[in-house]
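1st attempt posting a full record on here, be nice pls
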Amino acid sequence: MYDVEKISMAMFEEAVSVHATDIHLVPLEREWLIQFRMNGTLYDYKSIPLMLGERVLGHLKYHCGMDIGERRFPQSNAMTIVVKKEKIDLRLSTLPTRSKESLAVRLLPQKRKKELIHLPILSSNVQQLQYITTLRQGLCLISGPTGSGKTTTLYACLEEILYTSSKKIITIEDPVERTLDYLIQIETNDKAGITFDIGLKAALRHDPDVIMIGEIRDEKTAKLAVRAALTGHLVFATVHANNNYSAVLRMLEFGVSKQDVCEGLQAVICQCLVNRQSKVRMEVESFNHMPIYNRGSLYTFDHNEQIRKMVNKGLTREANTLENQLRKAWALGYTNECERGGEG
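the predicted structure (as tokens):
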């Protein structure tokens, strides 16, 4: 007999020890494959027998409150575990395949915070991020592909504001990735009718100084975010785009007027994650002593005048790209990467 609970916890402990961000349980024809995502790359962890894989899947579905009998439709839910006295929030989602279900688990450690000064690889980026946290009003957009560290930057900015001033901060997130003291954090819930735009409307009635929107996904949220910025609030938000110009275009595509974008958008940032030159080798037998890199962020910034040139004339600064930032970091010996990968 398999001790499914013990095997599941051992999997989570291993994932936490190597700083994995995601775990994937993939059904194959004769076995299940467990994979860890580390440093943005998916690695095979181990294979387990078919019966054990089914039991692990059922065990996790039961403990996070999913319907264990439902295999035809995707499901998602959350649960919390404790690994070596560290609280880890898990976001689980199933996806039906031809004959079985696949499971993806996002790991969200609650105590691992990164201060703003420790995020960028280039010191010049630190000053620019700190400047943004001193703004009194306006919209600050952070863009980049999935897994580029946007949420980490958002949390670091909010904690910098909490540390340096006394302001009321409200966040609207999907999901709340890390619980922060002294913040009001709203988690969207489509079933309950709490969407980003509904949550933002409610937040504006709650007398906030600073608002954080996990992601601008639609026209209503985009227009409300700009309206909040124009009425005296400092608003942080993310948007999926590959560079600053594309982020500005996204706001225009959402129906925000050029005038409102020029007046409300105070800063637009694009970022990616790269490996720092120094690395720490984790003694993990199952990964053949694979080096686990300390990762850092590269950023590009555009502010008022540059944003107006983008909106009105379509002009961008040719040198202001993540590729140029990466080449600079590589030349200075801060990273061992000289070309940017798919997701940075």
